[in-house]
Amino acid sequence: MKYATHIGNTARMLLIGLMTGLSMSSAAFPGLIPEKTPTMARSEAALQADAFFWAIFNGGDFDSIPLALDALTAAYLADPNDPITAGHIGGGLHLWRLTEQLRLNEIPPTITDHATLGRKYLQESVRLKPDARHLGQLAGLMMAEGNIHNDPGLVHEGYSTLLRSIRDFPEFNLFAGGYLASRLPSQSAVFKQGLEWMWQDINVCIGEEIDRQNPDTSRYLYQATPVGSKRVCWFGGSIAPHNYEGFFLQMGDMLVKSGDWQTGQKIYANARFAPDYGAWKFRQVLENRISDAQANVALFNAPRDASNRPIKPVMSESAYACMACHQN
């Protein structure tokens, strides 16, 4: 009821503004419409909602997404100029719900609404405070929504946005591009480009060309850093504590799906170099991937079942597509 009241109050304020002529100059001269500007100081409600969001996200508490959405959306309605709140709603909760939908016993048709809502909130976030990470997430949701609605123009716009995000933050968005492409057929040009982006991401992170015949990253571990753009290349951190392991699980899956299961095994093995590998909840998934790599070539490429679920999903389509990197 309090959310409906808030919306009702907002509608009344807009109506009063129109009736008193406050908006007439903007309507007559669109160039005079003031820009939406970001909030300088965040509200206590927004900070509390953020804390709840991070608790369930890093805790892998998928079932609490609706509660977190209520809290963050309420904070956003109270302050629609907060780019961080908007980003967490779109790029955190709606994207998570959509991406890990295989957790659901039955996937409702309305799961696609999360693409539409996520895109809207991410657009608001990027508009208020440009962030290349959110731009990459926005690109993915634009392409997803374009495919849902059979809108090639939106797919193309999303792809162009992805390329821009890669230019702005290659360490993060080369992975994002590969992640998105990994869902496509392995013989498609976009899948092959996505796999190439994963190789390029390693090169950007280590500062030189990796040996693709023997892609052992152990000798580069001294470069690990918690600051700067290269922080996303390594391990630890509160946002993605197992980013390193998740990267190599995802890339190994792509190599296996491409048919190169032997190199896939070598890429998977890099995850073991992470200091907290022993505490990673998806460690056994990766170990099984190494032992089953040859058999998984066919399984990763198999047609979907009668309920449109993959027979064996690569990481990006799995029930741990986000949590492989983000869960504590």
Task: Give an overview in words.
The chain has helices at residues 2-19, 24-28, 44-59, 65-78, 83-99, 113-128, 132-148, 152-168, 170-181, 189-206, 243-258, 261-269, 283-291, 293-301, 323-326. It is an all-alpha fold and 328 residues long. It folds into two domains: 1-11 and 43-168, Serine Threonine Protein Phosphatase 5, Tetratricopeptide repeat (Alpha Horseshoe), CATH 1.25.40; 170-328, no CATH class. Helix 3 packs antiparallel against helix 4 (65-78), helix 5 (83-99) packs antiparallel against helix 6 (113-128) and helix 9 packs antiparallel against helix 10. The longest helix has 18 residues, at 2-19. It is globular. The two termini are 35 Å apart. The model is unreliable at 13-26 (pLDDT under 50).
Oligomer: single chain
Please mark out the parts with pLDDT under 50 across 5 or more consecutive residues, or reply none.
13-26
> Given the helix and strand composition, which structural class is it?
mainly alpha
Main beta sheet: none
Considering DSSP H and I runs of 4 or more, what fraction of the residues is helical? 55-70%
Shape: globular
Task: List the SSEs and their pairings.
Elements: H1 2-19, H2 24-28, H3 44-59, H4 65-78, H5 83-99, H6 113-128, H7 132-148, H8 152-168, H9 170-181, H10 189-206, H11 243-258, H12 261-269, H13 283-291, H14 293-301, H15 323-326
Structural descriptors:
328 residues, mainly alpha, Serine Threonine Protein Phosphatase 5, Tetratricopeptide repeat, 0% strand, globular
Short précis:
The protein is an all-alpha fold and 328 residues long. It has 2 domains: 137 residues, Serine Threonine Protein Phosphatase 5, Tetratricopeptide repeat; 159 residues, no CATH class.
